[in-house]
Specification:
- This protein is of the alpha+beta class and 485 residues long.
- Strand 12 and strand 13 form a beta hairpin.
- The strands form 4 sheets. A 5-stranded mixed beta sheet has the order 3-2-1-4-5, sandwiched between helices.
- It is 38% helix and 19% strand.
- It has 18 helices and 15 strands.
Length: 485
């Protein structure tokens, strides 16, 4: 069903109930949008309903439409929304209403709750039919956080309860869009039109671009995961970053240039921007680490290459004391060594860490090799009550050894838990890892086996941390086990 109407009378009634003079309210047209879908994945799932309430100077326009998703609607979604396959059967598909929808949203600020979801779905749907959709987007979650910081949560149900909004059809597109309009009216009554105009500019204001960057270049940056590279004079890399939404992150730098000295300095030096897309967040994290080490951009401090990587291993001396022994870069075999703790970017960092845990846990610096050990004499730490007295046998050596192993266990380098290389599936790609080392990214089985047979890559601490975290989280379910041919 398509409904287009003007609710000037209702708008006046609502405004009066909040003691607001609507004649003084002057915003850009605001399109309060909500959608229902078959799921949460932009590429796989489809829209089943769109509801829009536009707040314009001449009243409120209403647009709603059931959409045939041309795919199955899961039972849990049917129960939540009340939208069944029978309801959408015979309704138009998205491509049949795309031009009409584009016209309805043209020139308006796109307002949605958790706007990335609704905007992302509609943008992806437009893209499939060859329509470029780049509105200004205002998220009411961000609006709520900004205006009501004392509120512990900002989901729609919380906002309904906190502000006494009237629910007409929860989890239906037009009903939820109406809730957003009501919330806007609450904000309007509490803070006034002038304040809300400031908020709009703050949340979606167009940041001024660097003087040497034009709008066409920015518009060509995709809203996809990947890495971006800022260049200065003579194509010198200034800064490399990563994001799951490249254009948003790049624009964030320029927005920050208005208030942050570092971002301003970066913005003034930029002469060009390049980017590399990845299939997802993991690929972007790994690519960022590699690019920074390869290109050494001047304004990146973290993720720099270290040629002095080292760690600690524990060796028992003739008296039964466990002594930390430094394992230097040339001796390291991370992923293969059972007895390895750390790692550290330099010997200085390694010794500083050992000193820190000695003081925190009252370990003996003499027994740890951090100061000269003299038989029968206490270490300096004992004299200032920072050592438990293991150097004088006041604490048993076995207990000191146990305390040291317990503390170091938190920083133990995990031995590679697989019998060979693995691939982590992300999007349409496979990220190939062996012994915590990144071997490359494959798009088919031939490339997969070619990378696995290419030989050992150099261990990189940053990539180790990235991969270890990924494998302990959601990516664990995406692991592909295989054997090199």
């Amino acid at each position: 069903m398509l409904t287009i109407s003007t609710e000037t009378h209702r708008q006046t009634k609502v405004a009066k109930s909040f003691d607001v003079d609507i004649n003084e309210v002057s915003y850009p047209d605001l399109a309060f949008v909500d959608i229902e879908t078959t799921g949460s994945h932009f590429d796989r799932d489809r829209i089943t309903e769109i509801g829009i309430k536009t707040l314009a100077n001449d009243g409120i326009q209403v647009w709603e439409r059931l959409i045939n998703p041309q795919t199955f609607i899961p039972q849990n979604i049917q129960r939540l929304t009340g939208i069944s396959p029978q309801m959408v059967e015979g309704q138009p598909s998205f491509d049949q209403v795309a031009k009409e929808l584009k016209q309805e949203l043209e020139g308006k600020i796109f307002v949605a709750h958790n706007a990335r979801f609704d905007y992302g779905f509609i943008k992806a749907s437009f893209k499939r039919v060859g329509i470029d959709f780049k509105p200004k987007v205002l998220c009411t979650v961000k609006l709520s956080r900004l205006l009501f910081p004392e509120q512990p949560r900002h989901n729609l149900d919380t906002i309904i309860n906190a502000h006494g909004l009237q629910v007409s059809a929860r989890h239906r597109a037009l009903g939820d869009a109406d809730l957003l309009l009501q919330f806007w009216r609450v904000c309007e009554a509490k803070f006034g039109a002038e304040k809300l105009n400031e908020v709009i500019n703050q949340l979606i204001g167009n940041p001024s671009l660097p003087p040497n960057i034009d709008r066409d270049l920015i518009d060509s940056i995709p809203d996809t995961p990947g890495c971006y590279i800022f260049y200065g004079d003579n194509k010198t890399p200034l800064y490399i970053g990563k994001s799951i939404s490249l254009r948003n992150r790049v624009m964030g730098h320029f927005q920050g240039a208005l208030t942050q000295r570092k971002e301003m300095k970066l913005s003034l030096q930029i002469r060009d921007i390049d980017w590399i897309e990845t299939s997802g967040e993991l690929g972007a994290l790994i690519l960022e680490s590699r690019l920074i080490k390869e290109r050494m951009p001047s304004m990146n401090i973290k993720l720099r290459r270290s040629k002095d990587l080292c760690g600690w291993s524990l060796v028992e001396d003739e008296s039964g004391v466990l002594l930390p022994q430094l394992v230097t870069h040339h001796q390291l075999a991370p992923g293969l060594q059972e007895n390895l703790y750390g790692l550290f970017y330099s010997k200085r960092e390694a010794h500083s860490y050992l000193k820190a845990i000695a003081k925190k846990h009252h370990l003996c610096e003499a027994l740890l090799g951090l100061e000269k050990r003299v038989e029968g004499k206490s270490c300096f730490g004992y004299q200032v009550k920072q050592c438990g007295g293991a150097c004088l046998n006041l604490t048993p050596i076995t207990l000191h050894n146990l305390q040291l192993k317990t503390v170091l266990e938190l920083f133990k380098i995990q031995v590679w838990p697989y019998s060979g290389p693995i691939a982590i599936k992300e999007g349409g790609e496979m990220i190939v890892i062996d012994k915590w080392c990144y071997l490359g990214t494959a798009i088919n089985q031939d490339e997969l086996y070619e990378l696995a047979e290419s030989g050992d890559a150099e261990f990189d601490l940053d990539i180790y941390k990235i991969v270890k975290k990924a494998l302990s989280g959601a990516y664990k379910q995406q692991v592909i086990h295989f054997s090199a041919q």
